Amino acid sequence: MKLVLKLFLKELKNQKKLMAFFCFNICLALSTLLSLESVKSGVETLLYSKAKDLMGADTAIRARRKFETDEIHKFHTFYKNEEIKSSEVIETFSMIFAPKQEMSRLVEVKAVSSNYPLYGQIKLQNGVIDAATPFALKTSEIYISQDLRNLMGLEKGDFCKIGKMNFAVVDVVVDDSSSSWRGLDLAPKLYMNLSDLHATGLITKGSTLSHSLLLQFKPEAQNEEVYKRRQAEFYKEFSDNTINITIPRDASGQVSRVFDYLIDFLSLISLLALMLAVTGISFLLRGFINQKCKEVAVLKSLGFSNYQVRCYFILYILFLTLISFVISYGLSLFFLPLLQNYLMNYVPAIKLTLNFIVLSKILFIVLALNLMANLPFVFQLQNVREIILLREDGNTLSLPRPKLSSWLPLMFFFFLLCIWQANSIKIGLVFASSFLFCLILLWGFFSKLLNLLANLNVRNFFYIFNFAIKRMARNKASSLTSLVALTIGLTLVVLITQLKSSLYEEFSVDNSEKRASLFIFDIQDEQLSFLDKHLTGMGHQMSPGAALIRARLLKINQEDVEAAQADDYETREAEASRRIRNRGINLSYRNELDASEEIIDGEILVPYEEGKMPYPGLSLEEKYAQRMGIKLGDILTFDIQGVELIGEVKNFRKVKWTSFKPNFFILVAPGVLELAPKTFIATLSQISDDKIWQIQNELAKNFPNISSIHVNHLLKKILSLFEQMSIGVTLMSFCCILVSLCVISSIFYYQMAEKKKDFSILKVLGMGHTSLKIYFILEYLLIVTFSSLFCLALGNIMGYIFLNQIFDLAFNIEWSQLFIILIVIYFFNFLISFLGIINILRTKPRNYLLN
Amino acid sequence: MILEILNVKKTYQQAAKQIEIFRELNFSIKSEKNIAILGRSGSGKSTLLSLLAGLDKVDAGSIYCFGTDLGRLNESELSAWRSKNLGVIFQQYHLINSLNALENVMLPLEILQQANAREKALEMLDKVGLSERIHHFPSQLSGGEAQRVAIARAFVAEPKLLLADEPSGNLDVETGQKVMQLLLSLSQTKKTTLILVTHDLELAKKCAEVYELKDGMLKLHQ
Ligand SMILES: Nc1ncnc2c1ncn2[C@@H]1O[C@H](COP(=O)(O)OP(=O)(O)OP(=O)(O)O)[C@@H](O)[C@H]1O
Ligand SMILES: [Mg+2]
C-alpha cells in the first residue's frame, strides 16, 4: 500500500493536464449545486428561526370560516394549561374605495384584536409594533401596506371606505415579520381593529375569510414536543376537519412551499449538470486508464496484485474529486455573496453560508458518483495481462469495454438522488427516468448514426467534408460522449424554453378572450338579482351566478375523514394530500356544465328526485378525486352547517382552472342544495382592462361587501412572479449547457496532441491552411449540428408530452427563441474550436514528425 | 537542376544560448538519383530535411528546388508546392489514425483533387504488397505494414522529390531491409529523387551517393 501511495504521488506531477480537465469539467456543476444547497439551508434556517415570528404564535387555531364564541371558549379551555396570552385575527378580502383618488381596489383586510402581535414585529413609518407595544388602533383607523400606498396613492391622513365604514389612514407598514416573503400576495394588505371589521358589515354568512386564534404559551410549554403533542390531542378532541392547528414548524413549511418547489427543481437540474460533468470525466479517466494499460502490465509483471492496481486508480479518483471539490467550494464562496444580494430583494433576512453538513453531503454525492462512474473501467484492468508487453506496440492495446450492467449502481444511485432532491418519489422518478431514457436513446441513436457515417463515402463531395465525418465517426468514444452531453444540455434548454413560452401563452393577456375579466365573489343570495340588474344597466352581461355552499367532508364510504398531522419527513405528495384533507370544501350545483369543464369519466348528473334514487349524484374534479383516493360510485357524506348531505360520485370532471370561471371541486346534482345557505360567484368577460377598474369602482360604491378580482391585473402579477422564478430556472439550464460545453471542449483539448499530429501530417502532405481550418472546425460543428437537430426534436417531443399530456396545457413552439439559443450555441462552439485551431495552427510540424 | 542549397544558415534558440546548425551550407543535386545522408545524432540531418520540405525557414541563404526558391513562397504556395512535388517518409510512419490504409493513401491525391484517387491508391497498395490490408486502420497494422502504407502514400502522387528520415529506424533488421528495398526500387521505377537520412552505413551504401553531415557541412563519405 505504501508503494502504491509512493507511485501515485510520483505520477501525480505528470498528470497536471488530467487534473485541469477534471476540475474544468466538474467545478461549475459542483459549485452550482453547492450554492443551491446553501440557499436551501439558508432559507430553512431562516424560516425555522423565524417560524414563530412568521405565524405570530406558539400555536394557531385556524379555519376558513368564522368561529362561534362558544367554540373559541372551548379552545381556550382546551389550552388552559399552556396559554398565557391570546389574540384573534380575521383575514378577509374586500374592496377599498378611496374618494380622493376616485379609485377602488381589492385588498386583504387583516383585522386584529388586542394583544396583537404576540410575536414578531411590524415596522411602521412612525414607530414599531410588537408584543411589548401592541396594536393601538382607534376606531376607524387603519394601517396600510406600502404596496397599497403605491397602488392607490393613499397617504397618511387620507380617508377611504371599506364596507359600510369610513376609515382614516394613520400609518404605513414598512416591514412585517408575518410576511417575510415579498410579492406573493393576491392583494395588498391593510390592518384594522377586529371590532371595526364587524361594523363594516363585510362579514356575513359564507364570506370568504380565515379566522385564527393565536396563542402564546407559558415559557415552560414553549417547545416543539408540547406543540406537537397538544396538536395531536386537539385533533382527537375536535373532530372538525375544517379546523387547522398550525405550529411553528408547519408555518415555515407553508411560507417556503413555492420557494421549495423552485429550489427542488433547480437542484434536480443541477444534478443533471453534475451527471453531464461526470460523463465527461468518465471519458477523460477512461483515456487516462487506457494510457496506463502498458504501465499496469509492467507493474503486474513486477508482482503488483490486481488489488494494488485498483487502489492506485481509486486513489486517483478520490484525489481528483477532492481537489475539484475544494476548487468548487472556493468558487461558490465567490458566488454566494452575489446570490445573497439578489435573494435579499425577496427574503431580506436571508444569510447564505455553507455549513459542514451541506459540504459533507455534497462531497459524499460527488465522490460516490465519480467512483460509480469510473470503477467499471478500473475493474477492467484486471483483464490486462502481462503478455501485452511482448507485443510490438503495447500502447495501441486498449482497455476492454466494461459491461453495460456495471453502471447499474450508478443509475440506481442517481434515481435515489433525484427522489431525495425532489422530495417526491413521483417527480424524482419521472425526472430520473426521463434523463435515463434520453441517455439511452441518444447513446443508441448516435452510436448507430456514427457507425453508419463511419463507412459513408459520398462521391463528388468535398473530400474535407468526407474526411471530417469519418474522423468524427471513427473517434467514436469522444464523439459519442460529446454528442450525448451536448444534446442533453441543449434538450433541457429547449424543453425549458418551450415550457416557459407555453405557460406565458396560457397566462398572456392576449389570451384573455377565453378567460373571465372580472371575478366577483361573496355575493349574497339576496344581492344576486340586484347585482345582475345593476350590471345590465351599465351595459354588461354577467355570467349566471354560481352558488357556493360551504361544507365539510365527513366520510368517504362510511369512513371518517380525519384531519391529518404532519409527519416528521413527508414527500411533496403526502404534504399536498394532507393539506387538501384538512380543508373545508365548497359545493355547488349547476344545470349545465361550463365551457371550461368537461366530464371525462362516468355519467352526467341528473336532477335529484327523492324516492326515485338512493342518493343525489356528485361530480368531482379528477385531480381532487385522485388525491383523496375517491372512485366512481363512492358514497360521500358532507356536513353543511349542521345538516348532513349524502351523495354518490357519478362522474369525474376535467377543469380548466386558468379560465378563471367559477369552478368547483365538487358539484352536487340539482335539486338538493337550492335552499342551503350560500353565496354566489359570478364573472364578467371580454371587457377591457380600463373598463374593469371602472366597474370595480362602481361595484365598491354600491355593493360594499362584494369583492372582485381584476383577473388580468392579477395574472400580470403572477406572470411577473413567474418570470422572476423562471430566471433561476433559465440560468440553471444555461449552466447545464455550459457544463456540456465544458465537457466537449475538454474532450476537444484533451485530444490536442493527436490533432496536432494530424495537422502536421496533413500539412506535410500539402494541405493548405484554409482547408485545414475548415477541416478541424467542421469536425466540431458536425457534432454541434447533429446535437442541435436532435435536441430540437427531443426537446419538443418531451415538451409536448409534459404540457399536453401531463399538464393539459396547449403546446406552443417558440421558434425565434430556439433559433437565438442555437445561434448562441453555434457561436460558442465556433469560438471554442477556433481558439483550439489557432493553437493547432501554431504547431511546428517539424517537432512532431521528425526525429 | 533538381536541388540547390546556397549559403544556408540555420540557428536554433535553446534557452539563453544560440546553437548554430548550419553556418554556410552549400549543396546541389544536378540529376535525378538516390542520395543517402549519414551523420551523428544531433548533427542536423532532420533539420536539413525540414528545410527542404519547407516546414522550417532558413535564416540566410536560399534553397532552390526544381528552380523554385522555397524562401519566396508564402504559406499557401508552399502547401501547393508540397502537394505536387514532395513526398516524405518518417521513422514513426505517421499515418492518420482515423483513416484506414486505403484512405491514408488516397489522401495526397484528394488534396490534389485528382479524379481517380481510389484506383490509383489501390494500385499503389498493390505495389507495396498490401492489397489484403486496405481496410485496416493504422492501429491494426504491424510496424512493417504501416511503413509500407506510408511509402505508398508518399509515392502515390508521384512526387519528384522524396525525403525519408530513418524509415527503417523503428523496424527490426529484416523488415527494415525489406522496406528499404521497396523504397529504393520504387524510387527507381517512379524516377524520383530520394534523399535518405540514416545512421546505417550499410543501408546508405545502397544509394548512388553517400554524404556525411558533419560540423554543418555536407561532405562525400569515403
Ligand atoms: N525546434 C528546435 N528548437 C531548438 N533546438 C532544436 C530544435 N530542433 C532541433 N534542435 C536542435 O538542433 C540540433 C539538430 O537536431 P536534428 O534533429 O536536426 O538532429 P539529427 O541529426 O536529426 O539527430 P538524430 O540523428 O538524433 O535524429 C539538435 O541539437 C537539436 O537539439
Ligand atoms: Mg533526426
What does this structure look like?
The complex is a heterodimer of chains A (851) and B (222). Chain A is α+β, with helices and mostly antiparallel strands. Chain A is 54% helix and 17% strand. Chain A has 25 helices and 22 strands. In chain A, the strands form two sheets. Chain A has a six-stranded mixed barrel with strand order 2-3-9-6-8-7. With 222 residues, chain B is an alpha/beta fold. Chain B contains seven helices and ten strands. Chain B has helices spanning 45-52, 75-85, 101-111, 117-127, 143-155, 173-189, 201-204, and strands at 3-14, 17-29, 34-39, 60-65, 68-69, 86-89, 161-165, 193-197, 209-214, 217-220. In chain B, the strands form two sheets. Chain B has a six-stranded mixed beta sheet, sandwiched between helices. In chain B, strands 2-1-4-5 form a four-stranded antiparallel beta sheet, with helices on one face. At the A-B interface, α15, α22, α23 and α25 of A face α1, α2 and α3 of B. Adenosine-5'-triphosphate binds next to β1, β2 and α1 of chain B.
Name a few traits of the molecule.
heterodimer, A: 851 residues, alpha+beta, six-stranded mixed barrel, six-stranded mixed beta barrel, elongated, B: 222 residues, alpha/beta, six-stranded mixed sheet, four-stranded antiparallel sheet, 10 strands, binds adenosine-5'-triphosphate, binds magnesium ion
Name the strands of the widest sheet of chain B in spatial order: 6-7-8-3-9-10
Rg over CA atoms of chain B: 17 Å
Report how far the terminal alpha carbons of chain A are from each other: 40 Å
Structural class of chain A: alpha+beta
Derived structural class of chain B: alpha/beta
Continuous helix count of chain A? 25
Give me the count of strands of chain B.
Answer: 10
Helix residue percentage of chain B: 25-40%
Got a strand count of chain A? 22
The average pLDDT score of chain A comes to 85
Low-confidence stretches of chain B: none
What is the subunit arrangement here?
Answer: heterodimer
Strand order of the largest sheet of chain A: 2-3-9-6-8-7
Order of helices and strands of chain B: EEEHEEHEHHHEHEHEE
Distance between the termini of chain B: 25 Å
**Which ligands does the model contain, each kind named once?**
adenosine-5'-triphosphate, magnesium ion
**Compute the gyration radius of chain A: what is it?**
33 Å
